[in-house]
Design a protein that fits this description.
The complex is a heterodimer of chains A (325) and B (623). Chain A has helices at 2-10, 27-33, 61-68, 91-95, 100-106, 115-118, 134-146, 179-184, 197-212, 214-238, 246-258, 265-280, 288-299, 315-324; strands spanning 17-21, 40-44, 75-79, 82-85, 97-98, 111-112, 123-127, 148-153, 156-161, 165-170, 187-191. Chain A is an alpha/beta fold. In chain A, the strands form four sheets. Chain A has a five-stranded parallel sheet with strand order 4-7-10-1-11. In chain A, a hairpin with a 2-residue loop joins strand 8 (148-153) and strand 9. Chain A is globular and about 65 Å long. By secondary structure, chain B is α/β, with parallel strands linked by helices. Chain B has helices at 2-7, 18-29, 46-56, 71-75, 80-86, 95-98, 114-126, 159-162, 177-192, 194-218, 226-238, 245-260, 268-278, 285-292, 311-331, 345-375, 409-416, 458-461, 465-483, 507-516, 525-542, 568-575, 600-610; strands spanning 35-39, 62-64, 76-78, 91-93, 103-106, 128-133, 136-141, 145-150, 167-170, 393-398, 439-443, 449-455, 486-493, 496-504, 548-554, 584-590, 613-616. A six-stranded mixed sheet of chain B has the order 14-13-12-15-16-17, with helices on both faces. A five-stranded parallel sheet of chain B has the order 2-5-8-1-9, with helices on both faces. Chain B is globular. Chains A and B meet through helix 4, helix 5, helix 7, strand 8 and helix 8 of A and helix 1, helix 4, helix 5, helix 9 and helix 17 of B.
């Protein structure tokens, strides 16, 4: 689970993670703790959408008009944030809506940004994503796919960049996710509770320790956390230099075909995730081991199982497939 | 626009999907082609292609219509600012008014509200938007083309709406690994340096744009002669495509294809290619059934593969041509002078060739599509009812009855707007009075709940029925699995009927439980009916507005009564009228009678008592 999260931070293009697991398997804890290892990004000061000044083509309309007016953007740095989407959120709070106060006071329309605006260039975390209402899911899908949130409602029409890492968690006991939404998640991991007495005990011990003195606990792990943060930051910089050979791309396509993937998201994600993994491990190029690490995460939720079979990914077949080509 | 362009791939860099590309180019050449529908599985690059298409369009934009759009926003409504400041009711055009002369793009069109989609296509087809709302009425002209994309595995769009799209393309997933690897490569290169990548393809994109431009110039002079029109009409009839839209679209598209090739005349290939573009979504089951019902052509059996057109068809032709005549005059300005109505000998053989080619391609498309849909189970769309609670999608507004807890702010402000000049403002910019208040109409997709009451008694275990029953449940659950309905399981044997699995969305849980359920013993059918019904009533109390389906899977042979009495069947007959509820629908699936003929009637009787739908388990099919 940790790896899947890290890969996404290294390359947001991996396309999000879906974490599936029973209750109490630390799904939310892991995502929330992610905040501690997130690297800093540069953004335009005062921009509601935290625009990226280094990509002028992706600026929001407000920054764009400032830029065209000849103004130079001041920038500041801050860590990527984890924005949580509450289950009960309504469509207008997510997509943004008419600023009512503004209308009543001035008689003019103004756009009030919602969660999707906050989520731009950040992580959007949806707990219990399977319980989200269908129309909200559609909305998330739309912006996740395009990186832009188009708002056309209640007398406002507006669009702003909304490029985020979508992290969802769910307990499969409470129902499945629509297949279309599944495919949109780049990676998927199944979390299971530990079976070994010793490691379970360790979990309990840590929790008790944390509860009795949270600050000391955080302090204790600080070196480790810092090191990880550093490593992630480095991997982000290295990412572009990781070489991806033609052979490896073909391996990825072969895997996708073998497991009957219809769309191209699987192939593309395989390569992106493998590259992020290689960057994280400090390698110069991707190799089969990277696929061994990432392929299960890319494929579990995409493999078409007959609805009543257990998850359809056969590790043996996967290994064969990676070796074969 | 500039932003959107850089986000997409260049058009010529999009690999594969040649048919879809062609369809889009056709629409770019001929603006009277009003709709292109692209169907394909998720992740095959439908939206990528459409966004890339914007780049090669000379002088036209592609405007995205979001799924969550309200009618006001789309079609237009009262101009708020004007109304407030000047007290005049003026119309401000919606998003649609801005699309005049451009393309609109509907991603996931199948998930859009059906009514909105229908009226949108109606406006686009008629070229006119008529507004009647909030005391303003307006009309404006609209010249635009709709491009819609969708994944049919999730939900299909109604045939009547699909028919409004001139062209439909099915995207077939790429199976060749080299080609797939190329696609991954292209994606990587594009991400590495967006601007440079676009530079690389600038020339070929410009070439496409110039092909489109010159085809536009040629198009008015392209001649489609009468024989070709006759051929198109015949083939459409033969493939059981109803309505005139198909004929007209195919005629238009043949001309465009010729123009794209720089010719002023239409070849056979143009015609067959046009048919392949225009017919896939129109060969629906409905039209096929109608045809099989026996009026026009009983000769064609679509299930068989290579049926040759019979000679009788040719004899029918003159009649068809006469029917077509008026249409031909109206719609084919380029059509040549009326030739002989009897098709000449050469037309006959030409016709066969075109027919063969078009039919072969269409059959292939249909087969691939059917195969794919079969793999992911059957899906039916469901109607979206009005929702009572404050959740669901905001669809529109109404004048509330009494107090509302869910005001529609925009509509309220609009209702108040024209009176602002005359009202005392009290320091507020907008003064709202109680008669202005509007509330939101919300629509939410209705979910259904199913209770499976399964007989696990001795009479069922005989002859390996359990396996068949499990398969039957699975095949029924396939649908709820896709639709996210709630299901629960009641099992009954010996003296007990119990809720084995409470309502859940997890189908796996039902199946696991069923597999592990103890079997054997007598049949307390009456108890099972009472338990299921009580459970359903309880559930419905908490979830008003839903319906509940109880599916009884049994051989209908009650052996243990719920209350001490002699006649277990008689007991059911007596309780049946008492437990009726309009929100509960019963279905009886007869699991008996497969091996034991004399028991067959018990289940049928049971269904009669309960007013239930009766299905024989054999008819459910196996998975």
């Amino acid at each position: 689970m940790k790896v899947s999260l890290i890969l996404n931070i290294v390359d947001p293009g991996v396309g999000g993670v879906l974490i599936r697991g029973e209750k109490g398997t630390a799904k939310s804890t892991a995502v929330r703790s992610l905040a501690n290892v997130l690297p800093d990004v540069e953004y335009v000061r005062g921009c509601r959408f935290r625009c990226d000044p280094s990509h002028p083509e992706l600026l929001c309309s407000e920054c764009m008009s400032e830029l065209e007016a000849g103004k130079r953007h001041e920038t500041e740095k801050g860590p990527i944030r984890v924005v949580e989407l509450p289950l009960s959120a309504t469509e207008d709070r997510i997509a943004g809506t008419l600023d009512l106060e503004h209308v009543l006071q001035t008689g003019k329309k103004r756009f009030e940004p919602g969660v999707l605006a906050q989520a731009n260039r950040n992580i959007l975390y949806v707990d219990e994503v399977n319980l989200l209402e269908d129309h909200i899911v559609d909305l998330l899908l739309d912006s996740a796919a395009m990186g832009v949130n188009y708002v056309e409602r209640e007398g406002v029409s507006f669009s702003h960049p909304s490029k985020f890492i979508l992290i969802g968690s769910m307990n499969p006991e409470e129902g499945e996710l629509r297949p279309q939404l599944l495919d949109r998640f780049g990676l998927c991991v199944d979390v299971v509770g530990d079976k070994y007495v010793t490691s379970r005990a360790e979990v309990v011990m840590r929790r008790l320790e944390y509860d009795s003195d949270p600050d000391a606990f955080i302090e204790k792990f600080r070196p480790e956390t810092e090191a990880l943060r550093e490593k992630i930051s480095l991997a982000r910089k290295r990412l572009k230099d990781v070489e991806v050979s033609q052979k490896m791309v073909e391996v990825a396509s072969n895997i996708a075909i073998y497991f009957k993937m219809e769309g191209h998201r699987a192939d593309i994600t395989l390569v992106r995730a493998a590259r992020a993994n290689a960057a994280f491990e400090g390698k110069d190029s991707i190799d089969r081991d990277d696929f061994r690490t990432v392929a299960p995460m890319v494929l579990t939720h995409r493999v078409k199982k007959k609805p009543f079979e257990k998850s359809g990914l056969d590790r043996g077949e996967l290994e064969e497939c990676i070796k074969m080509y | 626009m500039h932003q959107d362009v850089l986000r997409s791939l260049p058009f010529s860099a999009v690999r594969g999907m040649s048919l879809a590309k062609r369809a889009l180019i056709c629409a770019a050449v001929d603006h009277s082609i009003k709709g292109v529908l692209i169907k394909g599985p998720s992740g095959t690059g439908k939206s990528v292609l459409v966004r890339a298409f914007a780049e090669v369009l000379p002088e036209r934009d592609v405007i995205n219509i979001p799924q969550n759009i309200t009618d006001d926003q789309l079609f237009g409504g009262l101009d708020l600012e004007k109304a407030v400041s000047e007290g005049k009711a003026m119309v401000s055009g919606g998003l649609l008014s801005r699309t005049d002369g451009n393309f609109v793009y509907l991603d996931n069109a199948n998930l859009m509200d059906g009514r909105t989609l229908d009226s949108l296509m109606e406006c686009i087809e008629s070229g006119k938007v008529i507004l009647e709302r909030e005391g303003v009425s307006a009309e404006y002209l609209l010249e635009t083309t709709a491009i819609a994309s969708m994944d049919p595995s999730e939900r299909d769009i109604p045939d009547s709406i699909a028919d409004r799209f001139e062209i439909c393309v099915n995207i077939i997933p790429e199976k060749d690994f080299r080609e797939r690897a190329e696609i991954v490569r292209a994606d990587m290169e594009h991400r590495r340096d967006i601007s440079a990548y676009h530079e690389d393809y600038r020339e070929s994109d410009a070439e496409t744009a110039s092909i489109i431009k010159s085809a536009r110039l040629i198009l008015p002079s392209v001649v489609l002669d009468r024989d070709d029109v006759v051929t198109i009409v015949k083939i459409c009839r033969e493939l059981n495509v109803g309505g005139h839209r198909a004929d007209i679209s195919a005629a238009k598209v043949s001309k465009v294809l010729a123009a794209l090739d720089g010719r002023a005349f239409v070849t056979d290939t143009d015609v067959s290619d046009a048919l392949v573009l225009c017919l896939p979504h129109r060969r629906t089951l409905r039209t096929r059934e109608k045809a099989e019902g026996g009026k026009v052509f009983e000769l064609i059996d679509d299930s068989a593969e290579d049926i040759q057109p019979d000679t009788e068809i040719v004899e029918d032709v003159p009649v068809l041509v006469e029917e077509f005549d008026e249409e031909a005059e109206q719609d084919q300005e380029g059509a040549a002078d009326p030739g002989p109505l009897e098709p000449s000998a050469s037309t006959g053989s030409r016709y066969d060739a075109i027919f063969e080619r078009a039919k072969e391609a269409l059959d292939e498309i249909e087969e691939l599509e059917a195969f794919r849909l079969h793999e992911i189970a059957g899906i039916r769309s469901k109607r979206a009812p009005l929702s009572m609670r404050n959740s669901g999608r905001y669809r529109g507004f109404r004048v509330p009855k009494g107090k509302t807890s869910d005001p529609a702010f925009d509509a309220t402000v609009r209702a108040a707007a024209p009176y602002q000049i005359s009202r005392e403002s009290n320091g507020l910019s907008i003064k709202i009075e109680s008669q202005d208040i509007r509330e939101k109409i919300r629509v939410r997709r209705k979910s259904c709940s199913f209770i499976f009451a399964v007989d696990v008694s001795g009479s069922l275990v005989k002859g390996g029925m359990m396996g068949i029953v499990q398969n039957a449940i699975r095949s029924m659950l396939m649908e709820s699995y896709v639709k996210r309905d709630r299901v629960s399981l009641v099992t009954f044997r010996e003296r007990v009927a119990e809720v084995a699995v409470p309502f859940t969305r997890s189908v796996e849980m039902i199946c696991d439980t069923l597999e592990q359920a103890p079997v054997g013993g007598s049949t307390p059918l009456a108890s099972a009916i009472i338990v299921s019904r009580d459970y359903a009533v309880n559930y419905l109390r908490k979830h008003p507005g839903e319906n509940c389906y109880i599916i009884l899977i049994t051989d209908g042979c009650a052996t243990t009564p719920a209350f001490p009495c002699a006649d277990a069947m008689g007991e059911i007959r007596r309780i049946a009228p008492v437990i009726k509820d309009p929100k509960i629908e019963w279905t009886v699936i007869n699991s008996g009678g497969v091996y034991d003929v004399k028991r067959k009637d018990d289940a049928r009787k049971l269904a009669e008592y309960l007013d239930a739908r009766y299905i024989d388990i054999k008819d459910l099919g196996e998975y």
